[in-house]
Amino acid sequence: MRPRGGHREHRLVELPGGGFATASVELKTFGSRRSVYAYLRYQIGPRTKSTYLGEVRSATRLQALKNGWRLARERGLLKIE
């Protein structure tokens, strides 16, 4: 899911050594549990970094993805212009 119409500049994560990476929100469920968890994913060189955002509760996948992006913004994980 891409926030605000998918504009790349709204999905940037600042990297520890400088520079930026384009992020995405991934939704996961574990086992037979109905809980859905959001993770922020981005690449650092050949490796993919995944940061836990939290449990997202919603009736639809689209709303769960929006909630994941909201959590990432609230935690200051995205470069906001």
Short summary:
This protein is an alpha+beta fold. The chain has one helix and five strands, in the order E-E-E-E-E-H.
Could you characterize the architecture of this molecule?
With 81 residues, the protein is an alpha+beta fold. The chain has one domain. The chain has one helix and five strands, in the order E-E-E-E-E-H. Strand 4 and strand 5 form a beta hairpin.
Helix-strand blueprint:
Elements: E1 12-14, E2 20-22, E3 24-28, E4 37-44, E5 47-55, H1 61-74
Antiparallel strand pairs: 1-2, 3-4, 4-5
Largest sheet, described in full?
3 strands, antiparallel
Q: What number of structural domains do the residues give?
A: 1
Q: Report the strand count.
A: 5
Tell me the series of helices and strands, N- to C-terminal. Answer: EEEEEH
Q: What is the 3D form?
A: globular
Helicity, in percent?
10-25%
**Number of discrete helical segments:** 1
Structural class: alpha+beta
Strand order of the largest sheet: 3-4-5
Strand content: 25-35%
Low-confidence runs (pLDDT<50, min 5 residues)?
1-5
Give the N-to-C terminal Cα separation: 19 Å
What Rg, in angstroms, do the CA atoms define? 13 Å
Let me know the average pLDDT: 86
Features of the shown structure:
17% helix; 3-stranded antiparallel sheet; two-stranded antiparallel ribbon; disordered N terminus; 81 residues; 5 strands; alpha+beta; single chain; globular
